[in-house]
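Hi W.,

Here's what went into the run:
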Amino acid sequence: MKPLLIAAGLALALVPIWALESFHLFQLTLAVIMALAVLGLNIVTGYNGQISLGHGAFFAVGAYATAIPMSLLDWSFWATLPLSAMVCGMVGWGVGFPALRLGGLYLALTTFALAVAVPQILKHKAVEAWTGGVQGLFLLKPEAPTWLALNPDQYMYVVALLVAGFCYLLTANLLRGRIGRAMMAVRDNPTAAEAMGMDLASLKTRTFAVSAIITGMAGSLSAAVVEFVAPDSFTFILSISLFVGMVVGGVGSILGSVFGGLFVLFVPNLAEAISRSAPGVIYGAILILFLFILPDGVAGLVRRFTTKKRIIPGRETS
Amino acid sequence: MDGFAHQLIAGIATGGIYASVALALVMIYQATHHVNFAQGEMATLSTFIALTMIQAGLPYWVAFFATLVVSFIIGALVERILMRPVQNAPVLTHVGVFIGMLLIISNATGWVFGHTTKAFPTPFQSDGLLFGGLVSAHELGSTAVTLAVLILVYLFFAHTSLGLAMRAAAYNPRSARLVGIRVGWMLALGWGLAAAIGSVAGMMVAPAVFLDPNMMLGILLYAFAGALLGGIDNPAGAVGGGFAVGVLENLAGAYVVGTELKLTVALVIIIGVLVVRPSGLFGRVVFSRV
Amino acid sequence: MGMTRMLLEVKGLRGGYGPIQVLHGIDFLVEQGSVTALLGANGAGKTTTLRALCGMIRTEGEILFQGQRITGMATEEIARLGVAHVPDGRGTFMELTVEENFRLGAYTRRDGEVQADFARMWAWFPRLKQRWKQQAGTLSGGEQQMLAIARALLMRPKLLLLDEPSFGLAPLIVQEIFGIMRRIREESGVGILLVEQNANLALELADRAYLLETGSIVTSGPAAEIRQDEAIRRAYLGY
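Here's what came out:
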């Protein structure tokens, strides 16, 4: 049954390439990218129980790690991905290591600081030559290889699907295996995990680095798709949006990350139609509402309707 | 040397602001073991309220004290309405509620008061600098006000029954109940007091940085750094840390990294403290709260 | 005139932690001005009973304090009615000074005799007066127990609940503390409900005793009788 569903899902995912016009395809691509970004956050917060308020910073790092080589050094998009992964991993490690030795609160504080400080760093004169300062950098969407008869928009959609799909599969495998169980053990009962010999700090830091890389990948994709990066696209609000998306979609759920991505992308657009302040207030209100009433998010709701198994809240593994 | 002395004193003035917010953060942390990420936004809201009163014609100091009272009430209400229902929920829920509050308050403030930057008056007027170019009247006045607030808060906690009861409720809620202390009310009081302190910080900093809905985010970050530096479970340490961060920030901004990177200084301080001495200079040793 | 009103009447008390039920419906009484002992082995539910009386855990059943129903009341309200609980672990405010602990004991009092009571406590516990400005956490175990009792007495309670006052203390100190309890009974007329593992000492002091085993009362009676009943002692008290 499951392979059939996956195949159907894949087919469904490919339809938009020809069915949608440019702008809507662009939006769908962004939705895929945001879903990937939320997945990154979910790995560290949902599955490992560490609260990060600064994943927007990794999104930014990934975006610039792609934008700078493509715009200034004429690299191809694919070549920037390993660079992006490396830089995000290092930053993730560097930020996570000191904070994760202690408690979740310190990580929340540190990532909060990171999120607030990053736009400033990106604007600074010292790196302006590379980052383009306040004005940012422009780049061009990569062209599809000639044997693939797709225009750049369609091509980027496929690329986004591929990268996101790859990351999702990797994550799903990771979580189902030993490491995933270890991560969840750390989340659910750190004392017991430590008593069983797990090196908590190391596991937590590695998980954090992986989650940084995944959100960084999303950032890289977004740079290529949007064709523009600027410091003000990556403010603290982005980090909060990812957080809200994760909660609304479903903490600790891969499916939830998809819902979260959709939420992050479309709700602000809808809300902004009302007033400039509306998105923030609505975001905040929805976040609190979900925390009070639907702590398992939309994914949790879906699961309640589709499975007959007894569910222990907060312990989903899919 | 003139420049240095001025930077030092200006640093102390801003340090007073950070120390106040740091104190508010530590008060709530001690009582609930949670960090109020929305502390800055609450202070901004208070400052807007003050501005509204002033623009309506109230004399500055009347508006000042009225804002203190209103902020106190708002803080206490937030605790009762938002924090009470989730008091036994997991950490993620708590952080989420704080973030939700941050979003709502900051955006509602923008919606009600508008997003344009506004000038906020200072009661301490001077043309140019005093004491031979060392300090402006506002810097001097704001330092005096924040110091006065900090001293009053200290006296309240150290020498009044209510202050003692609040400390007891923060240290040991179970035993506090056993002697008849209504711990729930103590929490609401603590939040109210923290909000009032934050409002003072907001009103003192607004004349210098101008008032807009995002005014306090950077300041909140510095207050975090100060609280961590001094020891997040130690109110006196947090105050000292706040002053230290103010001076460090100013000196670093003037002589090392330039003013555009000041927020990064806060980030570096935070990470530095966590790497070198997580309990801060004066806090108790942190056991990895696993 | 009639019978003196019961200080504490408990009927069908049930309670526990989360899904775990510890007390399975117990009944007991505490008379005004008397010492009642609640005995039993580890895990019998003695501490749980005291917690139930103070509203610290979920409970069902009837708890009447001076005729008033207190089941389901908040802990701090029960304390304000006149129930002073010295919990397991003593419940001292470790970070605060001895003086501050005293002041907290008297926190809810509105009469003018607090200073006089301080003086009385200093007379009963001179060591506490010596350590007046010291942090409570620096006191020895015995001194902390005395501080906990002093703090409870400063509430001018009508009922004093003591959870294993002898726990972890040297025999000499334990004697001192039981001496204090005798003084309490004689001089202040406060009713005492004493939970103790040291059954012998408890039975020497108490007027009445209840034996608790896995959440139920298995026997009860005048303390003197239980003390002399070898069968009961061997079966439930281990001596």
